[in-house]
Amino acid sequence: MIDPFRAAPNARAFDGPADRSGSSVGARRGRSQASQLVALATHVELFHTPEGEPFATFEVGNHRETALISGHPFRQYLACRYYNNTGSTPNAQAMQEAIGILAGQATFGGEMHSVHVRLAELEGAIYLDLGNGEWEVVKIAPTGWEIVTIPR
Asked: Distance between CA atoms of 137 and 9, rounded to whole angstroms?
């Protein structure tokens, strides 16, 4: 799932706890793995759907992806960030606890937005995901159509 297919372009990141000391998240002694995982997600945009499903939008390479917080793609993203930051892997219990906290933040602290998979309407235009490696969509508006790259 990709960004323009979430019906609100101005979603904000949840203002959760973060390690602002400049040191790596894993470097602080006494912090649980779950707390470190949550801290690694402070830049992620957390929100929920009208049905109450918690989602996250995060940067991958030169584009943004939107995924269900409890889904495999977001878990992989978070595990990869943890490994890159600490050099070790998080245990399953820590991951589950972090996912629970992030889902709660999305549900109770995040904005509500609709999520669309391949086709969406936004501000009078219809967007059709081309599903290509360039992350392009066809924007169909009353004035015509154009192929656009999804903005960061």
From this structure: 15
